[in-house]
Automatic annotation (TrEMBL):
Keywords: GTP-binding, Nucleotide-binding
Pfam families: Arf
Record GO terms (molecular function): GTP binding; GTPase activity
InterPro entries (UniProt xref): P-loop_NTPase, Small_GTPase_ARF/SAR
Top-rank lineage group of the source organism: Eukaryota
Organism encoding this protein: Nymphaea colorata
Name of this chain's protein: Uncharacterized protein
């Protein structure tokens, strides 16, 4: 899995991407 920190509207949250999707 991939763990990513995403910022959305000045809010940071962690996305656990189980599928390993490409951006």
């Amino acid at each position: 899995f991939n763990v990513e920190t995403v910022e959305y509207k000045n809010i940071s949250f962690t996305v656990w991407d189980v599928g390993g999707q490409d951006k």
